[in-house]
Design brief:
Mean pLDDT: 92
CATH architecture of the largest domain: Alpha-Beta Complex
Low-confidence stretches: 1-6, 21-33
Strand content: 15-25%
CATH superfamily of the largest domain: 2-enoyl-CoA Hydratase, Chain A, domain 1
Shape: globular
Distance between the termini: 35 Å
CATH topology of the largest domain: 2-enoyl-CoA Hydratase, Chain A, domain 1
Number of domains: 2
Structural class: alpha/beta
Helix content: 40-55%
Length: 284
């Protein structure tokens, strides 16, 4: 994804893809090029293995806020430039020069970046290659689906340098992997390859080396082809139902069902099914 290098501001770029276009048809403007669009957020500091600087984190938060507010965007892909890494976490060279006060001032900027990815209303697919360590692993965990190629290496090594994961790692790993496997990764700080990541549920799809981006985009296009009302409601139900009792979870699901069942999308979906044609979703 080296083409992203030149379009990035502060280490974060955006590519826009038509939701139903064949692979390779894309625009690189500052807004969606089609009514149903996929936004590909690209971490673009390949020379630094996409390490998160303060400026990069601030830019990522801003990009996520803009994309999240754009109703034309049906799905999001989080990818990275370069061949070696998805993201190796915080820029430790930058941090080494910081005072305690500066480190504390950086904290809300980083929280906003990770929170920006996690709070995107659209489904987010991570396309992971190479190292996804510390904050890089946490960015992937903030996505709804993780596609990892055979080169992917995941880890939460913060305890090996006197820290605790601070981008959601303890809580997201707990919810995705369960307490035992989360503790295994976090307390040892060990790194795992794509095969183990898939086996324990950290990676949802394992694909050949060099193909994470295209597989993630294909998955995003499949999601974007569905009812936007139903997809957004389903994502809310999955997110809001995590960690609550079954009874509360079923109420969350019922609210999502009602949001979709009385929408224009549901009426269009039924009509398209009866008329044996592709639906034209009104998105409301």
């Amino acid at each position: 994804m080296n083409a992203a290098d030149g379009m990035a501001a502060d280490g974060v770029g955006v590519r826009w893809h038509a939701g139903t276009a064949p692979a390779g048809q894309e625009a690189t403007s500052h807004g969606p090029s089609a009514p149903a669009a996929i936004a590909e957020i690209v971490l673009a500091r390949p020379a630094a293995m996409n390490a998160l600087s303060t400026a990069m984190a601030a830019r990522l938060a801003l990009v996520c806020a803009e994309i999240g507010a754009d109703r034309r965007v049906r799905a999001v892909v989080l990818a990275a430039a370069g061949d070696r890494a998805f993201c190796v976490g915080a820029d430790l060279k930058e941090r080494a020069a910081m005072s305690d006060a500066e480190l504390l001032a950086q904290r809300p900027v980083f929280r906003a970046a990770f929170g920006g990815v996690l709070s995107l209303p659209q489904p987010v697919v991570a396309a992971v290659h190479g190292y996804a360590l510390g904050g890089g692993c946490e960015l992937a965990l903030s996505c709804d689906v993780i596609v990892a190629d055979e080169t992917a290496v995941f880890g939460l090594p913060e305890t090996t340098v006197g820290l605790v994961p601070g981008g959601g790692g303890t809580q997201l790993a707990l919810r995705r992997l369960g307490p035992g496997r989360a503790a295994d990764l976090i307390l040892t700080g060990r790194q795992i390859g794509a095969a183990e990541a898939e086996r324990i549920g950290l990676a949802d799809r394992r694909v050949p080396a060099g193909t994470a981006g295209e597989h993630a985009l294909a998955l995003a296009r499949r999601i974007a082809a569905n009812s936007p009302v139903a997809v957004l409601a389903a994502k809310r139900a999955i997110r809001q139902g995590s960690g609550v009792s079954l009874a509360v979870g079923l109420e969350v699901e019922d609210a999502a069902w009602r949001a979709a069942a009385f929408s224009g999308d549901r009426r269009e979906g039924i009509a398209a099914f009866k008329e044996k044609r592709e639906p034209q979703w009104p998105g409301e």
